[in-house]
Amino acid sequence: MSATRKKSVMETVYAKIKEAIITLEYPPNHPLIEEKLAEECNASRTPVRNAIGRLQNEGFVTTVPARGAFVASLTLSDIKEVFDIRRALSLLALEIGMERIDREILRRITNTLRNPAASQTERDEAGTQLHFAIIEAARNKRISLIYGTLEAEIKRIHNFARSRSNPSDMHVTYNEHLELVEAIVANDPHRAKTLLAQHMINVRDRVLRTA
Considering its fold, how many domains does the chain have in total? Predict the structure, then answer.
C-alpha cells in the first residue's frame, strides 16, 4: 500500500469512528473493540488503533488497563468547561466583529427561524451558522482555531442532551437565536452581548439538567 493510500485509510477510519462518537452511535462508555471496529470500517486493526490513539488525545476516548478503550463519558465538569470556553470566545468575537457579521447570512437564518415549516434539522443548522458567523466575523485566527477544536465536543454534548431533553427546550433556543439576530441587525452591541451571554448560560443549564 502506498503512503498516500495508507494515510487516506487512516483518515477515513478516524473520521468514521469520531462521527459515530459525536452522533452517539457509540454512546458514552461504549467499548471500542479493535477487531469489531476494523470489521465495521473494512480496514485492518492498524488504522483503528491509530484512530483510537488520536481520539484519546482529543478527549473522546479513555483507556482502562486490562479492559481496553471506551468512549469517554460526559461529566458535569466536562460540559461546564466546554460551555465556559465557548461563551468567552463567542462574546469576545462578537465584541470584535459584530459590524462585520454577514447580513445575508443573518437574513437566511432569520427566514429559517421564522418559517413554521422549517424542520428541526434546518433550525439547528441555522443556529450553528449563527454561532460560526459570529466567530468568523472577528477575523482572529486564534479564536477560530480554539473554537474549531470545540466544535465536535459541542455537537456531541448537544446530541446527548437532545436525546434526553424536552422538545420545548429547542423552541426556547430557536427564539433566543432569533432575538440575538435581531439585536445584531439593529446594530445594538449592548443588547446583542447581553442576549448572547444569557443564551450561552441558558443552553449550558438546559444541557446540565439532562446530564
Answer: 2
